[in-house]
UniProtKB/TrEMBL annotation:
GO terms for biological process: nucleotide catabolic process. It comes from Massilia atriviolacea. Residues 451-575 form the 5'-Nucleotidase C-terminal domain. PROSITE patterns: 5_NUCLEOTIDASE_1, 5_NUCLEOTIDASE_2. The keyword Metal-binding does not apply. This is Bifunctional 2',3'-cyclic-nucleotide 2'-phosphodiesterase/3'-nucleotidase. InterPro entries: 5'-Nucleotdase_C (IPR008334), 5'-Nucleotdase_C_sf (IPR036907), 5'-Nucleotdase_CS (IPR006146), 5_nucleotidase/apyrase (IPR006179), Calcineurin-like_PHP (IPR004843), Metallo-depent_PP-like (IPR029052). SUPFAM superfamilies: 5'-nucleotidase (syn. UDP-sugar hydrolase), C-terminal domain (SSF55816), Metallo-dependent phosphatases (SSF56300). The lineage of its organism: Bacteria, Pseudomonadati, Pseudomonadota, Betaproteobacteria, Burkholderiales. Residues 1-21 form the signal peptide. One of its GO terms (molecular function) is metal ion binding. Residues 36-288 form the Calcineurin-like phosphoesterase domain. Belongs to the 5'-nucleotidase family. It comes from the Bacteria.
Length: 666
């Protein structure tokens, strides 16, 4: 494999390469175009926050999918869509804790080099550590203020990286090579069915969301500017064709949006697909798999989007989810008409292949990858054990079902602050809406008596954040009215059984069939509501008030949550993906970590006791009971739960739980 080096020299771009052999008229070929996207430096199937293996993610498992696809498609190309160098503890370790030296290669790029990537794009998160760092680790010399272009070129990936729509203010030229043309030797079949070897010239062009100027303003202001996807593609794709590109693959880090086109739009690929000359699109940023026939996400249900076949306005398009969970595979069927290669879209296939198999197991990782980055991996484990802040109170979920908010209040505060800042910077149309947040106690004893969040008072390390926020979700916010907010809370109150106040025998409070991670709650001084467990589900939320006024359908809110909930996870009424107003580029856990780092010292008064909900008071003839770990009544008392008592240190069920009682009259 060779690629042309294209140096942008206005007004023309000159490229040098050997001429490709001309295939015979009527020749056909199948080329597998593979994509990874939003890897976020998840090199291995390991969760550095849990300090435990995590088989659901990691490029080491994607490597097995790549090997399988290469066997299926002997003619193949492998590309990365971006958001590659940031997003895991390993990435932070190499960028911040122990900065990479010029001669060193990033762990993620070491692995990608081994996997023989053919090219890559640049996402928005590539800019998170600043232009000097990006210049270094990609092996580029940026002519921008603040970056010394005279320094030696540092080690970078062994494959070309392209980005067409981000320009240096100093030079008015693209920061990266806007495109490259790769000479790929392939085996085709002539009209008589005989194999022929020929050279396919594959042009790749890259795009990043123009919104990087807002998201990383502190690094980029006054140094770079962006252009819109549509006009950038219209400028460069004819050049690529003139330079001999047989195929043009757009590597565009963004999703789909069919609203009126603007050069600043974050997810402009629906419009990009209409630019003539694009044969395939590799997209990302949205952390979703596409195609996906079952998807209810609005961007995959737009006019012109075929979520079954993977077509966007007729262009084969794939998005490979995130963190190595999927591999995008486009099987391009080509025919040579005597002058050029033509894509047969009727035969072309598009898939987002999952690392999780039908039986819920995962493909085996490639063991060579773990060996390749063993040093970086062990160093990162040591790193995540270091403190990031402190807390003067214990944050736990042992009594979350009865009102202890210590394990979720700080999550809600972090999410609320993030969304409020995000809206102010990027979504002025929502600026007048109050921002609320929902969080749930992810660990509630379902897996045993040790299955609770429990972060002791004292030093907080990065891995403690995983105890507070268990799942690797992305932060989303939805726009809802007061009626929809109440319906959300009604569904969450399904965590409780219906209590008969006249029954003299003990009654179990908790509906164990209802997962604790669906018990969403608000923890805001502006909101108050009651849960009446004597009522049937759907009729339990009473006295819902915002700033001491009743909430009704005329009220509107932005509610911070996660991609799982916003897209329909948990079966909450009205939450099916259609109400998403913010699909943030950051994970909930990362938002929480950043918040703790900023606050530095958490206090119970500020971060652990703001409780919005109470049980509606009612006197019951018999006890209302629930189960939790034994000997922890002082935790309930510290959380202000004076109506909780321990009945027995052993509930008699043989699993180590204690039996507690809740007095609903207090």
């Amino acid at each position: 494999m060779r690629y042309q080096i294209c140096i942008p020299v206005l007004p023309l771009m000159f490229c040098a390469a050997a001429a490709a052999a001309t295939p015979p008229k009527g020749a056909t070929a199948v080329v597998g175009v593979m994509e990874t996207t939003d890897l976020h430096s998840n090199v291995l199937g390991y969760d550095y926050f849990k300090l435990a293996p995590e088989p659901s993610l990691g490029l080491d498992r994607t490597a097995s999918l790549i090997a399988q696809a290469r066997r299926e498609f002997p003619n193949n190309l492998l590309f990365d869509n971006g958001d590659t160098i940031q997003g895991s503890a390993l990435a932070d370790y190499q960028a911040l804790a122990n900065p990479l030296k010029c001669e060193q290669t990033l762990a993620i790029y070491k692995v990608m080099n081994r996997l023989a990537y053919d090219g890559g794009g640049i996402g928005n998160h590539e800019f998170n550590y600043g232009l000097a760092y990006l210049s270094q680790v990609t092996g580029n010399r940026f002519e921008v203020d603040g970056v010394d272009a005279s320094k030696p070129r540092c080690a970078g990936p062994a494959f070309p990286q392209v980005l067409a729509n981000v320009y240096s203010i100093k030079t008015a030229r693209p920061l990266f090579a806007p495109y490259r043309i790769i000479d790929k030797q392939i085996t085709a079949t002539d009209a008589d069915g005989k194999p022929v070897t020929t050279t396919l010239k594959v042009g790749i062009i890259g795009f990043a969301p123009p919104t990087i100027l807002s998201w990383d303003k502190r690094w980029l202001e006054g140094k770079v500017y962006t252009e819109g996807l549509r006009e950038t593609a219209s400028k460069f794709i004819p050049e690529m064709r003139a330079q001999g590109a047989d195929l043009v693959v757009a590597i565009s880090h963004g999703g789909l949006d069919d609203s009126t086109y603007a050069p600043s739009m974050e997810n402009g690929n629906w419009h990009l697909s209409k630019v003539p000359g694009i044969d395939a699109m590799l997209i990302g940023h949205s952390h979703l798999p596409f195609p996906n026939a079952a998807s209810t996400v609005p961007q995959f249900n737009l006019p012109g989007v075929d979520k079954v076949k993977g077509l966007v306005n007729g262009v084969p398009t794939v998005m490979a989810n995130l963190w190595g969970k999927h591999l995008g595979v486009i099987g391009l069927h080509l025919s040579y008409d005597g002058q050029r290669w033509v894509v047969d879209r009727s035969k072309t296939t598009v898939e987002a292949r999952a690392a999780q198999q039908a039986d819920k197991s995962f493909v085996a990782p490639d063991p060579a990858i773990a060996a390749l980055v063993a040093g970086e991996h062990e160093a990162t484990i040591r790193y995540v054990k270091t403190p990031v802040g402190a807390t003067d109170f214990r944050m736990s979920s042992y009594f979350a079902d009865v009102g202890d908010v210590t394990a979720i209040a700080v999550v809600n505060q972090a999410q609320t602050e993030y969304v409020a800042k995000y809206v102010k910077a990027n979504l002025p149309q929502y600026a007048a809406l109050p921002v609320l947040s929902m969080a749930s106690p992810f660990k509630g004893g379902s897996a045993g008596v040790t299955d609770y969040t429990d972060v002791k008072a004292g030093s907080l390390a990065l891995n403690n954040a995983a105890d507070l926020y268990l799942y690797p979700n992305s932060l989303y916010a939805v726009k809802v009215n007061g009626g929809e907010l109440k319906a959300w809370l009604e569904h969450a109150a399904g965590r409780f059984n219906t209590i008969d106040p006249d029954l003299a025998t003990p009654q179990e409070l908790i509906n164990t069939a209802f997962p604790t991670y669906n018990f969403d709650a608000i923890t805001s001084k502006d909101v108050s509501y009651e849960i009446d467990v004597t009522k049937v589900p759907g009729q339990r939320i009473k006295n819902l008030r915002f700033r001491d006024k009743p909430v009704n359908a005329s009220n509107e809110f932005l509610v911070a949550t996660n991609n799982y909930r916003a897209s329909g996870g948990g079966g909450f009424p009205g939450l099916d993906g259609s109400k998403t107003a913010v699909a943030a580029p950051d994970a909930n856990r990362e938002v929480l970590i950043a918040y703790i780092k900023d606050v530095r010292h958490l206090t119970r008064a500020q971060h652990g006791q703001q409780r919005s909900w109470r049980f509606a008071r009612v006197r019951t003839a018999g006890p209302v009971v629930f189960h939790s770990a034994p000997g922890l009544l002082p935790l309930a008392q510290q959380a202000g739960l004076a109506n909780v008592s321990q009945v027995r240190a052993d509930d008699g069920m043989g699993k180590g739980f204690a039996l507690y009682a809740l007095d609903l009259s207090k």
